Every structure is written in C-alpha cells, then in structure tokens.
Amino acid sequence: MKKLRAERLLSVIRTASSMPILVATAEGEYIVKLRGAGQGLRALVAEVVVAELAEQVGLRVPSRAVIEAHLTHDDPEIAELLAKSRGDNLGFVYLEGASVPATVEPELASRIVVFDTLVMNVDRRAKNPNLLVHNKDIYLIDHGAVLLFEHTVHDSLNERVLFDHVLTRFATDIPRQSARMRMMLDRPQIARAVGAVPSGWLTDEERRAMVDLIAARVAAWPEWSARIGIGQVSEGGREAQRIRGTAELLGEAIDLAARGGLRDVRVEHVRLRPGRRASSPHFHTRSEELVYVLHGAPTLVLDGEARPLRPGDYVGFPAGVARTHYVVNHTENDVEYLVVATLPGGDETKY
C-alpha cells in the first residue's frame, strides 16, 4: 500500500463505534481507521486482510493507503484517541456521494453472503449494512471485527451471519457462488492477502499463524458450509463438483474472470479427470458459451451424439438454442479446456 500523510482533519464520524475520521491528504480525502480505537491494530489488520481476500474473489472494497497522522482536536475524548493513534493508521479512499443500495442482484448478493460467512462477518445487517453504491458499483466496508475462527463457536456464528445478513433475501445463488469462491482462495492467495498487511503491524510468526488459520478455515469449507446449507455443490480437490443428489464427481474448475475481478463474463479453466464429465446435458436460455480444448482428448456430447475433440478445437453454443450438451473424458489421461460464457441477467440453465 502507498503511504500518505494526513494534512488536515475534516470530521470525526461519531456514529461509528471506532470513531474513524475523515482527513485530507495530498491525494484526496480518506476515511481513516485509527490504531488507538477499539481493538487497536488487530482491527486494522483484519480490515487489510479481508479487503485483499474480497478483491481476490471479485468483490469491491475502497482502495487503501497507510495514513500517517499527527493530529489534534479540541474535544478531549477525540484528542485522546488521536494521541493514541499517532503514526501509521489505515485509510480508505472517501467515496463521495455514495449511498446504501436498495437491492443487489442475486449473483453478487450470494457472493457477498458466502464471503461474509467465510470470514465470519456478523456486521452486515439491515440497520447497518456496511455496503455503499458509488458510480453504480457496490463496495464492501468495515471489516474490523471479523476472522473470529479461534474465538467463537463456529456453527452458531455461521448461522447468525446467514440469519442476520441484509442480503440473504436476494441471495438465490449461494451454492454455486460457494463452489466458485472456494476455488479462488488457495494458500498462495491467502498468503498474498496477509502479506499486504504493513510491516510492523504483525510479526513474522503472527503472519504465518494467520495464513494457517485462514487456510484451515478454507480447507474445512465442506464441513462447516454443509452444516449451514451453503456448500452442497462442492467437495474435495481443487473443485470436485458433484451433481446434487448423486455421488458422481464432475470436473474441477477455476473461474479466471472472477479471480481477475471481471463481472460480465465467465472464463473457467476446467480439468476433467479420467471417466468424469463436466455437467449434466443442458443448454442456456440467454448465456452464450464457447469451449476451447487446451489438453487431452475430450468428447463433446451434443443432443446425445458423441463428437471427439482435440487440443485447439473449439465449439460455441448460442443462447436459446435448445440443443443439450456436455463434455466428458473417456480417456485415461486428464483433459483441460476453457469455457468462456456471457453472464446476462435472467439466464436459465435447462437440463
């Protein structure tokens, strides 16, 4: 993160429990979370790590900077807080004119609910959603009281997240978003998020422990998510999906577009182990798909007719054309291919 200096105190946000401040810097205005408030540096560390993880799974958080602050105030309470916070604090760029969203589309709402359940964020409720709309994009804010894996009873807190969450009523795509998100958070990604915490805020030992803690949480995803009903479509491996209600293992897929922060297209890297298929026979009402073979010799089954494919082959599936298709691996070697698809609203998958 870049480092800026607070040149002027503009206001104190007294409605928030940690009393963040709005400051002017050489690069604009920032909301600053103070190291002398509440849980101190622990809250700032959680803010950084969760913001980094959120961005890795395609969610938006205001951009961040380390803010050096040496400020004073006439109010004795504020003056004491500022004195305790001299030095480096955490700032988020001020989103001028931002408002609370009235609705959130189902895919994004589901992704936010799943993410909040993963990091155990219980502070996105109707009275205080901690969501902002700015230039038509939705941003997540306020993550100081999260990553509570070692301090709470997991089941009860997970259930509380889902029960209280302001977006639960919009979140109709939770199982699929759970499966997609789990693929995106491997150990290197987690280490990268923890590595973004500024020097001096964590010891090397604390950094390693935090990576271990979050990685263990992700590794236990099938167990805790199944108990609360969000993980039914994923189990094992990188993402060994199952057809619901059967024991059939499907392909492993990583959504490269989501990992890269893209919203309007799906680009999945799919791996099919020998004997597996990628899906049930299906077609889409509004989404267009293209399959491009990278490695191996998969078979495309189109309306029940088998068509062998080789590396470099590609095939497109226009939206609304009622021809069912799926890819299967009848060989003894792994198959890898890309799936590129549009993500229009109102799309239905017909089986």
Compressed to H and E, one letter per element, the order equals EEEEHEHEHEEHHHHHEHEEEEEEEEE
State the end-to-end CA separation. Answer: 47 Å
Extract low-pLDDT stretches: 232-247
Broad structural category: alpha+beta
Query: Which oligomeric state applies?
Result: single chain
- Number of folding domains? 2
Q: Which term fits the overall shape?
A: elongated
The main sheet comes to: 6 strands, mixed
Polypeptide structure, described:
The protein is α+β, with helices and mostly antiparallel strands and 351 residues long. It has 2 domains: 3-228; 252-350, Jelly Rolls (Sandwich), CATH 2.60.120. 28% of the residues lie in helices and 25% in strands. It contains 9 helices and 18 strands. It has helices at 41-56, 76-84, 106-119, 154-164, 174-184, 187-195, 204-219, 221-228, 256-259, and strands spanning 3-5, 8-12, 21-25, 28-33, 64-69, 87-93, 131-134, 137-140, 252-255, 265-272, 283-284, 289-295, 299-302, 305-308, 314-317, 325-328, 335-342, 349-350. The strands form 5 sheets. Strands 1-5-6-4-3-2 form a 6-stranded mixed beta sheet, with helices on one face. Strands 9-10-17-12-15 form a 5-stranded antiparallel beta sheet. Strands 14-13-16 form a 3-stranded antiparallel beta sheet, with no helix packed on it. A hairpin with an 8-residue loop joins strand 2 and strand 3. The longest helix is centred in the first third of the chain and has 16 residues, at 41-56. The radius of gyration is 23 Å and the shape is elongated. The N and C termini lie far apart (47 Å).
